[in-house]
Automatic annotation (TrEMBL):
Alphabetized UniProt keyword annotations: FAD, Flavoprotein, Oxidoreductase
Oxidoreductase recorded as keyword: yes
Cofactor(s) needed by this chain: FAD
Organism in which the protein naturally occurs: Naematelia encephala
Domain of life: Eukaryota
One protein family per Pfam: DAO
Name of the protein described by the UniProt record: Peroxisomal sarcosine oxidase
Example of a GO MF term: flavin adenine dinucleotide binding
Gene3D superfamilies noted in UniProt: D-Amino Acid Oxidase, subunit A, domain 2, FAD/NAD(P)-binding domain
Amino acid sequence: MGQVESSGEQEDAKGHALVSKTAKILVVGGGGTIGSSTALHLARRGYTDIRILDVFQIPSGNSAGNDLNKVAGSGRDGVWGQIGQASWEAWKNDPVFCPHCHPTGRIDVASGPDRKADELYAKYQAMLAEGRGDEFEWLDNEEEIVRRAPHLHGAHIQGWKGLWVRESGWVAARDALDSVGHECRRLGVKTAFGSAGTFKSLLLGTDGKTCTGVKATDDTEWPADLVVLAAGAWSPILVDLEGQCVSKCWVFAHIQLSTEEAQHFKGIPTMYHHELGFFIEPQASTGLLKLCNEFPGYTRMAKCHPFGLNRETVLSVPRSHAQHPNDTMPDEALDEIKRLVKICLPHLVGRPLINQSMCWCTDTPDANWLLCEHPRFPKLILATGDSGHSFNTLPVAGGEVVDMIEGKLSEERRQLWRWRPGYGDPKGTGRPGPAPKDLAHVLGWNHDSPR
Ligand SMILES: Cc1cc2nc3c(=O)[nH]c(=O)nc-3n(C[C@H](O)[C@H](O)[C@H](O)COP(=O)(O)OP(=O)(O)OC[C@H]3O[C@@H](n4cnc5c(N)ncnc54)[C@H](O)[C@@H]3O)c2cc1C
């Protein structure tokens, strides 16, 4: 099996590379999803002096990608459809990723008949028009859904409709990140973790603006010709992004299945419901079934001082479970997960929700990446704005970053990923539905008292 290159050479690619292949490059957040992918693609394209900086070793305990599994696969249209397809090909064929890919298919469902079901049907029609009809099947009723997802027999899914997506399934997220870490090390990527790897500020050149490296929290100074900031939900609190990213958290939990129960779920398609949430085949070695609900997410508004802003400000500041394991979860988020179980897996009602955790993403108002050079700090590349749908892109996201560095992004993509303060949904969510609540205003979330 060959290595799958990124979206790579695009048709109307133009521009020049920002640095040479021997340049000193730092990837801040390289223990996470987009950062580790960036380090991997840089190394694969022949860059020789790459160093990852992160709070934790890959897979970083703070990474939104550091859990059992994630939904992956194609199924969208436009640029994100192209990225999804390229990612899925790499998940299936690239030796770094394919051991962690489970092409079980996915059902993408709505309670319908409603607007969401209509949207799914319109999507199905669009895929037919694109000649991709063999990848999708319309599921018009409960029987057709259960035929594709037999484990939903007995679930309360009367009236549901949706899509069967063949080129999809799930990926073992933490294992895949670990695999990228091994490959980076094999290719000579250097690392620094802990306080020496934790970003504190940028270093600037004599012009007072060109980025010349990073200062870590232990005051280590890391000089560089180019710095990539891929710090996920932490990006907007580390460097001033002028309000383009809002960080939010989501809650997930697990049910411990017995060996027999886990066997019953073996090979099930991923189930994604646009309001209730999703679940994935349990982990074979442990029988853990991960459940995640889908809602606007929560902010945690707090004072912070991003580099490049000359005053303190209030932004949504992530607080990771890895660093604060005694934090409790909002009651309403756990209730939503219980609702998912009650409707889809009624035989598991009442089972303890274990390994409850929060994971943090950062949304742009139009749900597109923020992938460009910072206009105030030349040689600082922003690779963030994951908008909650970027784990799927682990195999190719870094290729997109390197395309940007090498001036190879198509005009369309340069426009999508550009610096764009004030652009997009004014409620700043990039998602349908209501604006997110703040953790301070929901019951059950407590960061002071141990559980
Ligand atoms: C509950 C949940 C379920 C999800 N499910 C899916 C799914 O099914 N499919 C999918 O495609 N996506 C899913 N996502 C979204 C996906 O996980 C994220 O979009 C993606 O992982 C974000 O990648 P990132 O590289 O931007 O950030 P991360 O992977 O979070 O990486 C950020 C990195 O920055 C590091 N960092 C932070 N601060 C500093 C600092 N000061 N110095 C140095 N390093 C620092 C962190 O340690 C971390 O390693 C889900 C997200 C959540 C929350």
